[in-house]
């Protein structure tokens, strides 16, 4: 107190501030400078000991929060001696903030929730609402993402930095790519023609999927055991597989495999290059793609399903025709012609073969 007395008198003389107020200002200044110096020393020691960027970031954030909170409490005690206890101060402050700064309060509470529950941490890849990216910073009112996706395919970075309010964690459902299982399932659809040897194609795809996914499956199994201790995550199969389904223009073979969230595009590229190389050497496997095809039912198709092998009398066809056209003797319209079964149309017009349009 004796050391600060001359400084207090100097402030009072040159600024005209009362001695009590000058003393409070000086004490507040010394507290702030002192805690800033302590934080600087702590960070200097920590940075010499650790080189890892994540550890350094945590030291910076933890020391900042600690010094700000302690310094604020000490400064508040200096200035609120006449008001009463610290509890009264925080009660008045909370009520005012809740009314006037609703969004800021929500963001602050969201920050506390993130620190407490850890739905994500710095370095995690997350999606919240329509925004996705890697968390690169976490502050009291906002967290920062290095954006992925948007106009860029396969979850790669756009290069943009997006600031998201912490309060959105309560209104939107955050999805974390990095927590728990730490892998995602990726699917690659491969469409081959109906005429292709789809069984051989499926075997080739299975070999390619195992080539790229066997090591990843083993790593995923180890991480799954750790994740199961905290989350109810269980899979019966982690190895790659190929599913078969039929589309309107071919046989769809879908590769399903595990991959690292940050390497999805590179993994997909490697698999596709192997698929193109494998299919190029097979003369009985073709990709299906959009095209136009003319189909003559009297020549093509299975022999038992051709129009000239189906005995259908005109007497069986005409009632359906009259019902369709709504008037006897009316010419067959184009839309009726395209929707009728092929054997009925050929029975009515034996000299004209049916022409179909296919998308693939």
Descriptive notes:
This protein has 360 residues and is an alpha+beta fold. The protein has four domains: 97 residues, no CATH class; 57 residues, SH3 type barrels (Roll); 97 residues, Alpha-Beta Plaits (2-Layer Sandwich); 71 residues, no CATH class. It is built from eleven helices and eight strands. The protein has a five-stranded antiparallel β-sheet. The chain has a three-stranded antiparallel β-sheet with strand order 6-8-7. Strand 1 and strand 2 form a beta hairpin. The longest helix has 31 residues. The chain is elongated and about 115 Å long.
Structural domain count: 4
Order of helices and strands: HHHHHEEEEHEEHEEHHHH
Low-confidence stretches: 312-359
Proportion in helices:
40-55%
Strand segment count:
8
Q: Please indicate the percent range of residues in DSSP E strands (runs of 2 or more).
A: 15-25%
Largest sheet, described in full? 5 strands, antiparallel
Quick rundown:
By secondary structure, the chain is of the alpha+beta class.
List the helices and strands and how they pair.
Blueprint: H1 4-15, H2 19-49, H3 53-79, H4 86-100, H5 102-117, E1 125-128, E2 131-138, E3 142-148, E4 157-165, H6 168-171, E5 174-176, E6 184-192, H7 198-227, E7 241-247, E8 250-259, H8 264-280, H9 314-325, H10 334-339, H11 342-348
Antiparallel strand pairs: 1-2, 1-5, 2-3, 3-4, 6-8, 7-8
């Amino acid at each position: 107190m004796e050391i600060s007395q001359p400084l207090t008198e100097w402030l009072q003389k040159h600024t005209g501030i009362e001695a009590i107020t000058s003393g409070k200002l000086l004490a507040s200044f010394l507290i702030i400078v002192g805690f800033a110096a302590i934080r600087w020393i702590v960070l200097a020691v920590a940075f010499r000991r650790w080189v890892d960027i994540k550890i350094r970031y945590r030291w910076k954030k933890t020391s900042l929060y600690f010094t700000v909170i302690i310094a604020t409490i000490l400064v508040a005690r200096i200035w609120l001696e006449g008001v009463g206890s610290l509890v009264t101060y925080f009660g008045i402050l909370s009520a005012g903030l809740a009314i006037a700064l609703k969004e800021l309060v929500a963001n602050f509470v969201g920050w506390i929730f993130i620190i407490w529950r850890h739905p994500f941490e710095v370095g995690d890849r997350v999606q919240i609402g329509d925004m996705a990216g890697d968390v690169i910073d976490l502050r009291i009112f906002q967290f920062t993402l290095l954006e992925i996706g948007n106009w860029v395919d396969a979850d790669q970075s756009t290069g943009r930095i997006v600031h998201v309010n912490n309060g959105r964690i309560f209104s939107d459902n955050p999805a974390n790519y990095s927590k728990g299982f730490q892998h995602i399932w990726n699917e690659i659809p491969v469409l081959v023609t109906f005429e292709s040897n789809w069984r051989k194609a499926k075997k080739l795809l299975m070999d390619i999927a195992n080539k790229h996914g066997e090591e990843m499956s083993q790593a995923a199994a180890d991480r799954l055991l750790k994740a199961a201790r905290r989350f109810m995550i269980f899979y019966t199969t982690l190895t790659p597989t190929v599913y078969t389904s039929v589309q309107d223009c071919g046989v769809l073979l879908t590769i399903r495999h595990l991959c690292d969230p940050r390497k999805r595009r590179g993994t997909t590229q490697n698999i596709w290059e192997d698929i193109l190389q494998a299919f190029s050497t097979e003369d009985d496997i073709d990709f299906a793609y959009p095209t136009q095809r003319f189909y003559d039912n009297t020549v093509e198709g299975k022999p038992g399903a051709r129009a000239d092998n189906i005995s259908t009398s005109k007497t069986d066809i005409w009632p359906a025709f009259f019902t369709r056209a709504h008037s006897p003797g009316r010419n067959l319209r184009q839309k009726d012609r395209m929707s009728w079964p092929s054997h009925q149309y050929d029975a009515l017009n034996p000299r004209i073969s049916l022409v179909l349009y296919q998308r693939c």
